[in-house]
Design a protein that fits this description.
Layout lengths: L28 H8 L4 H29 L4 E3 L5 E7 L5 E6 L4 H4 L21 E6 L14 E3 L10 H12 L15 E6 L3 H9 L5 E4 L1 E2 L3 E2 L2 E2 L10 H11 L5 E5 L29 E6 L3 E2 L5 E3 L20 E4 L3 E4 L7 E4 L2 H23 L5 H11 L19 H9 L5 E8 L5 E6 L6 E6 L23 E7 L2 E3 L23 E6 L5 E8 L8 E8 L5 E5 L4 E4 L4 E9 L5 E6 L6 E4 L3 E2 L3 E8 L7 E11 L2 E12 L8 E3 L4 E4 L3 E5 L7 E7 L7 E7 L3 E4 L7 E9 L11 E5 L1 E9 L7 E2 L5 E9 L5 E12 L5 E6 L8 E6 L8 E10 L10 E5 L15 E9 L6 E14 L5 H7 L2 E3 L6 E5 L7 E7 L4 E7 L3 E5 L6 E9 L2 E9 L2
Parallel strand pairs: 4-6, 4-7, 5-6, 7-11, 11-12, 12-15, 27-34, 36-42, 49-50
Antiparallel strand pairs: 1-2, 2-3, 3-8, 9-10, 13-14, 16-17, 18-25, 19-24, 20-23, 20-25, 21-22, 21-24, 26-28, 28-32, 29-31, 29-33, 30-32, 33-34, 35-37, 37-40, 38-39, 38-41, 41-42, 43-52, 44-52, 45-51, 46-49, 46-52, 47-48, 47-51, 53-54, 54-57, 55-56, 55-58, 58-59
Length: 981
């Protein structure tokens, strides 16, 4: 038995949310909170699930087509790499992912940033984490990695793409035990993944603070021995849109991708001969696509003296003539780690190597910015900085070969260092109809340059139109620089990629725009505006300006703050000046109702100052951006800080599911509610009485959902959610009611179609068996009985897929269980015991608990095709699905109405009573009348109440039996009461 999987088969790795392991991984908790604090985590999780299902569906369709057309799933290349069938184009062409494989730190000037570099910054990626998606497993044990590499979902293999992913990861983070193999960020951590399901996995990592990821793979224009459809090349496809959507919802995350190695291949129908060779996510707007240069000639002072493109590097532009690739790194004859041993090294060339050269360098720039400013750059700022400071190469200005030029880490770091005096780095927001204005003074010795970049809204997909030039840009921002009657425009490509770029008019396609004024002098005005209506509200943008001269600078010395509304926030700043002139300070962007004060309102010396924000009691909970503005004549600089405010008073939680008074609910279900900007956590309470005196759940959670198990059928339950933050906990909330239904069990459906039940002995084999379920049932409980013959069952992962009509959800039943054991003949039930592995056959038998609960299917319609999948990722063993059936409990509403049930569940205690009787009534039920009669039927007490909890004093009555009648409108119930003192 061998295990030689060439890649992980991830169509059906279909993990539920939060299933990615985090062993061996540590990232600063404060950094994660800072990066993600303004993210809509619920939306990110929803997108994660959307793209997980999308990847599974695309792979499943591709495998079906492969079976019909006799296409291979994996293609072994002469150089040892393996291409994998991932999906189909809309017109049915198979798309295979392939690695883009054809003195990097020196070329990109990263060595100036590292420990011992000329800038003295000692940046080696300490406490920074990069992510790598690639085709296969990284050799994490390599001596260059020192335990800093986490392998998440790729399978070990003696063949396949392991050498490629190991080399890529080494380019980012090799320690330099062999000095020639030292990575860009030699002390950084790297989390690595296989390339399948990359979109969903990236969304999961974003929720843990991911800043940068490297993707040295893609769809070459010659795919599986033939050209991909001509329309697909250069088009804004679904892949491009997906990554734009991911980036738009995570504005600190930048996806770095290799451009591809089709530079010497010809597109059959190009925009222009020798150009138009980018595919898939390489045509996205919000990522950074990297071309491959030869070793650059760098002077001792870090200046570029010459560089040539590698002829294999894929050329742009996109079909709408956007500037792609974005930038160039060094990826030719790169020496780095190999996979054959823990001390193996090798040399590779290609955009696959140029991309991690750039990724590792950008990680250091983020590290440096955080050191200087107590916060990270947004992705648009990092992208703008990289492109703004790149060395022009190829044609003057940007072009479709080098993009904006060769990455220059030294100049980028110097721009961060000089921020406020000789440069400006700012993150702004443009409201609908607003014009942003900034006045700058040229230093007279360097070109005046200004760049804006923004993370754009996802565009409209092209699904088949050849060389469609319709802009993918949605929010079209415009930068201009003016002086007197002169107006300066940003660079843009022409319709002829061979021609030089121009800067004589509007750019309506790129979401990065740069203006260059070579011989600048005097005072200039920078304006940023937008066309039309901004989609999805105000648009954030980043602005980089160099070649200016300011006589003062402001620097933030404080991290972002989170405070309670009954306290104050204090931020510290440093004022630096090169003259004795006075700088006047003011606060901008104060929340309505808040007060702000400064330790100094003006200064003419180098000194610290503080800003206090107070009077927050009437400010709504939420996130606010507040600026300290310094002004010296026309020279204005603003430094922004972020403030999160929590209040001690709460709005009632918005309960979503189940809806109020829902009947026929399964005994296991999920409760869902809306997130609150004023909550850090939630206390979920479930009770059998309206006063919540009899709690069955009282749990604090940070999510906005909670799973209930093993409730009583035909019973009434009440639930509420109490928001909580560091300042207070809510004491009341909206109360919803639901009633569990009646379970009608024993509805068994048997598999009859075993045409695909064989599990082949080759790697990544799949056996599947469907069952058609009818009858209009709602799932109240589900068990699955399976009989699978397979030697060495540890090779297998087994899933149950629900019907397409309910979103084809997957439940993982087993994941590589046991070891050298054979066969599974068992019933899967949430009520089962954990399985044990027996040495006899079958190894797993009896009623056992699945890995993931089958109750995830509860309360969903049962009709449709259910499918059992058995996946073997390894070579050497096979098997067959012999039998499969599903047993359902259909859940139907109880015969007792909700209203009747509410009265029936009223609690009266103690009973017997010694004279005091407590009556708990439904919440918000209005006026209720209580009647107490003796055993002869004589009424001895009447009381009207609107209270939830009512106390009756019956101490004056004789011991004996009484009847308590409770009436509310047309509803009525009675309780027998015993008085015994």
């Amino acid at each position: 038995m061998t295990k030689n999987s060439t890649s992980v088969f991830k169509i059906l790795s279909l993990l539920f949310l939060f299933s990615i392991p985090y062993a061996g991984y540590s990232q600063n908790k404060k950094d994660i909170e800072q990066i993600t604090k303004n993210y809509d985590l619920k939306k990110l999780k929803e997108l994660q699930e959307v793209y997980r299902k999308k990847a599974a569906s695309e792979k499943r369709q591709a495998l079906k087509a492969a079976k019909l057309n006799n296409w291979p799933e994996f293609i072994k290349n002469e150089n040892g790499t393996v291409d994998e069938l991932i999906k189909l184009t809309p017109d049915g062409f198979p798309l295979y992912y392939s690695v883009n494989n054809k003195n990097a730190a020196k070329s990109t000037r990263t060595n100036f940033l590292n420990t011992g570099g000329a800038l003295g910054l000692n940046l080696d990626g300490q406490d920074m984490v990069a992510r790598v998606w690639d085709g296969g497993k990284v050799r994490a044990s390599h001596r260059e990695f020192g335990g800093r590499i986490t392998v998440n979902d790729a399978v070990a293999s003696s063949s396949g793409n392991n050498f490629h992913s190991t080399h890529v990861t080494g380019t980012i983070a090799a320690a330099g035990i062999d000095p020639n193999a030292k990575g860009m960020a030699p002390r950084a951590q790297v989390r690595t993944f296989n390339w399948t399901d990359d979109e969903s996995e990236a969304l999961a990592e974003i929720q843990s603070g991911m800043l940068l990821s490297n993707h040295s793979y893609g769809v070459p224009i010659v795919n599986n021995g033939q050209f991909v459809p001509s329309w697909y090349i250069g088009a804004y496809t679904s892949d491009a849109r997906a990554w734009d959507e991911i980036a738009y919802n995570a504005p600190y995350y930048l996806m770095v991708a290799s451009a591809g190695n089709n530079g010497e291949d010809e597109n059959p129908n190009p925009l222009a001969a020798g150009f138009d060779k980018l595919t898939g996510n390489k045509t996205a707007k919000n990522n950074l696509v990297v071309a491959n240069a030869q070793d650059a000639f760098i002077a001792t002072n870090g200046n570029l003296t010459g560089v040539s493109i590698n002829s294999g590097s894929s050329q742009g532009p996109t079909d709408d003539f956007r500037i792609k690739p974005d930038i160039t790194g060094n990826g030719t004859t790169l020496y780095s780690t190999f996979e054959t041993s823990d001390s193996a090294y090798g040399t590779l060339s290609g955009t696959s190597m140029a991309s991690p050269n750039v990724t590792g360098t950008l990680l250091l720039l983020q590290q440096y910015y955080k050191i200087k400013n107590k916060r990270f750059m947004k992705a648009a700022t990092l992208k703008a900085l990289a492109c703004h400071t790149a060395d022009d190469a190829g044609n003057p200005g940007p072009d479709a070969v080098f993009g904006w030029g060769l990455l220059n880490a030294k100049k980028a770091a110097e721009t961060i260092t000089a921020d406020g005096l000789g440069t400006s780095i700012s993150e702004e927001i443009l409201q609908q109809g607003q014009t942003f204005t900034m006045t700058v003074n040229s230093n007279g010795t360097e070109p005046l340059q200004a760049t804006i970049a923004w993370t754009d809204v996802p565009g409209t997909i092209n699904n088949g139109s050849l060389n469609n030039s319709t802009p993918a840009l949605v929010n079209d921002l415009d930068i201009r620089i003016t002086k007197g009657t002169s107006t300066y425009f940003p660079w843009k490509l022409t319709n002829n990629p061979n021609a030089n770029a121009v800067n004589n008019g509007d750019n309506n396609v790129d979401n990065i725009e740069k203006i260059n004024i070579p011989a600048a002098s005097g005072t200039y005005t920078i304006t940023v505006t937008h066309k039309g209506t901004l989609a999805l509200g105000p648009q954030n943008f980043s602005l980089i300006v160099t070649g200016v001269n300011s006589t003062f600078a402001l620097a933030s010395l404080s991290e972002d703050q989170t405070v309670c509304s009954n306290s104050v926030a204090i931020y510290n700043f440093q004022h630096t000046t090169t003259t004795a002139e006075n700088t006047n300070f003011s606060i901008i962007g104060l929340p309505a109702g808040a007060s702000g004060s400064l330790s100094n309102t003006s200064s003419s010396t180098n000194e610290a100052l503080s800003m206090m924000i107070s009077n927050l009691n009437n400010v709504p909970a939420g996130d606010y951006t507040i600026g300290l503005r310094g002004a010296r004549g026309t020279d204005i600089e603003t430094k922004y800080v972020n403030l999160k405010i929590y209040n001690t008073t709460f709005q009632n939680s918005t309960l979503l599911s189940p809806v109020n008074n829902k009947t026929g609910v399964a005994p296991s279900l999920r409760l869902d509610w809306a997130s609150s900007v004023n909550a850090e956590s939630y206390i979920i309470q479930v009770a059998t009485d309206t006063g919540f005196g009899n709690l069955i759940v009282n749990q604090e959670v940070t999510e906005t959902s909670y799973f209930l198990n093993n409730l009583t059928p035909e019973y009434n339950y009440y639930w509420r959610v109490l928001p909580k933050n560091r300042c207070a906990t809510a004491t009341s909330s909206t109360i919803y009611n639901f009633q569990t239904g009646t379970l009608n069990c024993g509805q068994v459906f048997y598999a009859t179609d075993f045409s695909d039940a064989t599990i082949a002995s080759t790697a990544n084999a799949v056996g599947s068996v469907p069952i058609v379920v009818t009858g209009g049932m709602t799932v109240g409980n589900l068990t699955a009985t399976i009989n699978i013959a397979h030697t060495y069952i540890e090779d297998m992962t087994i899933y149950l897929e629900g019907p397409e009509a309910i979103g084809a959800p997957f439940i993982k039943l087993f994941e590589e269980p046991c070891g050298d054991n054979d066969d599974i003949v068992a019933t899967l039930s949430d009520a089962g015991n954990p399985f044990t592995c027996r040495s006899t056959t079958p190894s797993i038998s009896g009623t056992v608990r699945p890995l993931e609960p089958l109750s995830n299917f509860n309360n969903l319609p049962a009709d449709g095709v259910w499918t059992l999948y058995a996946i073997d990722k390894y070579n050497g063993d096979g098997g067959f699905i012999n039998d499969f059936n599903l047993s359902f409990c259909n859940v139907t509403p109880s015969s007792l109405s909700i209203a009747d049930s509410q009265l029936a569940n009223i609690s009266v205690y103690p009973n017997p009573s010694k004279g005091i009787l407590n009556v708990n009534l439904p919440a918000n039920s209005g006026k209720t009348t209580l009647y107490l009669n003796d055993i002869q039927g004589r009424r001895i007490l009447t009381k009207e109440t609107s209270n939830t909890n009512e106390v009756l004093n019956i101490d004056n009555f004789s011991d004996g039996v009484y009847i308590l009648t409770i009436e509310n409108g047309a509803l009525k119930t009675t309780k027998k009461i015993i008085l015994n003192r």
